[in-house]
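Data card: per-record layout.
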Amino acid sequence: MYGRKVKLRFFFIILILLTLILSTFLILKSLEENVVYFQSPTEIKALYEIDKKKIRIGGMVKVNSISMAAKEIKFIITDFKNEINVTYSGVVPNLFTEGKGVVAEGYLKDKNFFLATKILAKHDENYMPPEVKAALEEK
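The structure for this 139-residue chain is written out next.
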């Protein structure tokens, strides 16, 4: 019914579509591992179930909440409605201080405790990460 040319074109179109779909799937699957979601302490308190995925928590460092041990720093991140305790081992940025905006990346142990693997506070005193600013403006 169809000629050889039509069948060949149809085969190539199907082959190109399948290749495109497969490559898109593989790209999205590989990016899925590197996506880190941002949440505020209020959003964490509202979670139904705690995932073991890496997340970012943002807010303000509560005044008088920073305590330093030998290689560990503990502090509280607040969005002025809820708070979460954070523990971090490592060197914090120079601009990490009480009352300033901070984003901590790591793993949630429960709804009140966060184990940070990275502290993102590399900004001047007037800068606030857009995610933190939006979350605070919502509240």
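Known properties of this structure: The two ends are 67 Å apart (CA to CA). The first strand starts at residue 37 and ends at 39.

See the next section for split statistics.
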